[in-house]
Specification:
Butyryl-CoA Dehydrogenase, subunit A, domain 2, 3 domains
Length: 401
């Protein structure tokens, strides 16, 4: 089902589409398609710089920090057009997570130091929350920061720090007081990842990538100026950061875009001479996925339209994340199944963008990115808050169970 846009939003869509078409290159598009869910960081940096020149680098930020004062639908269109054109992934952690926390809670000096370089694509952040013994139970984290004069001395380990090896800075939860209730002893630090005493180890993934990392701290001296807000208030800031995005974790544009790719695969692949798209069992899967994605899209639009819900916003964000991540898995598995045995081949990450596929029947362009997607999407119901945790939130806060 399609919804139509008013003239203002339609003109905006055309403006974004033209901007992207003017600046995108076939090489960037190919890397975006092959890269699957994780985009090429250099392409993203390059793209943020182009967006910065246009004034669109951080559209969701307040006007005084370079934001765009767009309607929710404009943000929606902006993101959708990027997916549609296979443009580099937008830096959502800066848009919705660490950017707003720094603006709201950090000192003026930290804001001056960090916001402009983030806007201009010179600084990216990794997120250092999870530890080997604390994921869902985040308050159990044990990385310690002990005050020593003008510094905190940090010791411990983070895990699953996505992209830490290619990021300049880390936002990090640390224990500054072990004697109080766990939530009250947590503080929020930001620091460069090249400080002495930091070791980053990439974790090999089943999809051939090593995007996830372990990050170790051994007597890392972090200046006290790098504390965000007040000591012991890190839990509050982390919660505000995690609540920062209500609809993005539905990944609706991604699922729509990837469903279209699945359809392209099904139209080009055959079994015993029959196109996959003409096989009734597959037609049923496509119809079901399309109906579920459309339903989710309307739910997202209802939230963007600020409809009055009787449930707390946290439960709505949890429901969208839950459904969205399940649909990401549905769509990526559909792509993979349509590819059959060809899906077993994949391009080593180092070779992304370097492969030529034209004219190779075993290496068709429509298979790019499908295997890494199908594999990494197994994690979609874990990262950003595991499925069972989201269900607990909905059960408790919406239904009082
Ligand atoms: C691809 C990927 C990228 C990630 N990126 C980052 C990142 O950049 N930075 C970062 O800090 N972290 C990151 N994470 C970590 C992620 O936030 C955690 O994996 C997640 O919070 C789950 O924690 P855990 O892995 O310790 O699992 P656990 O918390 O041990 O959970 C294991 C299982 O038990 C279930 N469970 C746990 N507690 C309950 C409960 N109370 N009731 C019912 N069921 C429960 C969970 O739902 C899950 O199924 C990433 C993870 C992945 C997979």
């Amino acid at each position: 089902m399609q919804f139509s846009l008013d003239a203002k939003h339609e003109a905006f869509r055309q403006e974004v589409r033209s901007f992207i078409a003017e600046h995108i290159t076939p090489e960037i598009q190919q890397r975006a398609r092959q890269g699957g869910f994780f985009c090429n960081k250099e392409d993203q940096r390059h793209w943020v710089k182009l967006l910065a020149a246009k004034g669109w680098a951080m559209p969701s930020w307040p006007l005084e920090h370079g934001g765009c004062d767009w309607t929710p639908l404009q943000h929606y269109i902006f993101e959708e057009e990027h997916l549609r054109a296979d443009a580099p992934g937008l830096p959502f952690a800066l848009y919705h997570m660490i950017g707003p926390v720094i603006m709201k809670y950090a000192s003026q000096e930290l804001q001056d130091q960090l916001l402009k370089p983030m806007y201009n694509g010179d600084i990216t952040f990794a997120q250092g929350f999870s530890e080997p013994g604390s994921g869902s139970d985040l308050a159990a984290l044990s990385t310690q920061a002990v005050r020593d004069g003008d510094h905190y001395v940090v010791n411990g380990q983070k895990i699953w720090t996505s992209g830490a090896y290619e990021s300049e800075w880390l936002f990090c939860l640390v224990k500054t007081d072990t004697k109080v209730k766990p939530q009250n002893g947590i503080s929020f630090l930001v620091f460069p990842l090249d400080l002495p005493g930091i070791t980053i180890r990439r974790i090999p993934q089943i999809d051939g990538d090593a995007h996830l990392c372990e990050t170790f701290f051994s007597d890392v001296r972090v200046p006290v100026e790098n504390l965000v807000g007040e000591e012991g208030k890190g839990w509050t800031y982390a919660k505000s950061l995690l609540d920062g995005e209500r609809t993005g974790s539905a990944y609706i544009h991604w699922s729509k875009h990837e469903l279209a790719k699945a359809r392209e695969i099904a139209e080009n692949e055959t079994v015993n001479g029959v196109r996959i798209i003409d096989i009734p069992a597959y037609q049923a899967r496509f119809a079901r996925a399309e109906a579920q994605i459309t339903a989710l899209e309307w739910s997202v639009l209802r939230v963007l339209a600020n409809e009055n819900f009787k449930y707390p916003l946290t439960t709505i964000a949890s429901s969208l994340k839950l459904r969205g991540s399940e649909l990401q898995q549905t769509v990526s598995m559909l792509q993979w199944d349509c590819l059959g045995a060809k899906g077993l081949r994949f391009i080593p990450r180092e070779d992304y963008g370097a492969q030529t596929v034209a004219g190779d029947p075993l290496w068709p362009a429509h298979m790019l990115g499908t295997t890494p997607n199908a594999l990494i999407m197994r994690a979609a119901t874990i990262y950003g808050g595991a499925r069972q945790i989201q269900k607990n939130i909905v059960a408790k806060m919406a239904f009082g169970l």
